[in-house]
Prior knowledge:
By secondary structure, the chain is an alpha/beta fold. The chain has helices at about 10-15, 30-40, 50-65, 80-90, 105-110, 125-135, 155-160, 180-185, 195-200, 210-215, 240-245, 250-265, 270-285, 290-295, 300-305, 330-350, and strands at about 20, 40-45, 70-75, 95-100, 115-120, 140, 145-150, 170, 190-195, 220-225, 235. The strands form two sheets. An eight-stranded parallel β-barrel has the order 1-2-3-4-5-6-8-9, surrounded by seven helices. The protein has a three-stranded antiparallel sheet with strand order 7-11-10, with no helix packed on it. α8 (about 180-185) packs across α16 (about 330-350). The protein is globular and about 50 Å long.
Amino acid sequence: MHPALTTRVCTLFGVEHPVVQTGMGWVAGARLVAATSEAGALGIIASSTMSYEQLVGTIHSVKERTGKPFGVNIRSDAGDAGQRVDAIIREGVKVASFALAPREDLIKKLKDAGVVVVPSIGAKRHAEKVAAWGADAVIVQGGEAGGHTGPVATTLLLPQIVDTVDIPVIGAGGFFDGRGLVAALAYGAAGIAMGTRFLLTEESTVPDSVKRYYLSKSVTDTVVTTKVDGVPHRVLRTPLVEELERGNAFTRYPRAIRNAFAFKQLTGTSWGALARDGLAMKKGHELSWDQVIMAANTPMLLKAALVDGNVDSGVMSSGQVVGLIDTLPSAGAVVRAVIAEADAVLTRLGGA
């Protein structure tokens, strides 16, 4: 393997390859995470759609499947974020990642316990803030990425962040193969993170019918909408999404409240905890109450498609890269193919 493919994140995470599988809600469970980590990359459990008990059970399940390092993604604004951090520490999880900006106290607690902290960021100022708080690395997500995303493309955001912070930078948004990994390394990144590519693998828990639906889409079949949860969210363009785009508060809010109630029932979360989470979101991320209400909508809209298989009544987060993917390999095959292609490209460029 080309020496350039052993980067700072390999040492930091204790993995063989500079590839990260992102913590996608309803998707990144024990099977996918363990398969990714076993292949030498870093798999990350998505805990935001799990109860605390489900998270602990998933950690145990990953440990039973692999002895290699893996991570857990949490929301710092969750009412039980502290309890989840305690579980990560107690269970000896190698990496803690954050989908939204973490709290400084959570970073300190994790680092004091020897856990590697890797927030995801989408702007220069966010990278500067978490680096000053002691984050060990950052995942830099460009606008092409699925889920919550910003307006700046990876090709512009990645070099900007590399030039801003001294900690390892991992590029996300638009990556799916070895050529992308080499491009990220050329920008100065220490690795890549992929969501949509790992969603479309054998070990992903998404129903096969939904995976085939993803495979039928082109690079122009995604849209960034604020009508799902009040903030920019890249999803597949579907009739439901178009309906949400046309809707107004009188149609959106009843749906959001129903879905919040359903998520409460599913996870066993109390109304008090939901209220505290809403207040934390409003304060920590400067959201309006309208946006908080809409955010309560998201987990069940995603579950309808990604778990229940109802593409007509659910929402599917997706990066634009979906239009360049046409296979459903194993997670291990994805890792091996990315590294083999990157090695070949680097060798060819070195020869030239």
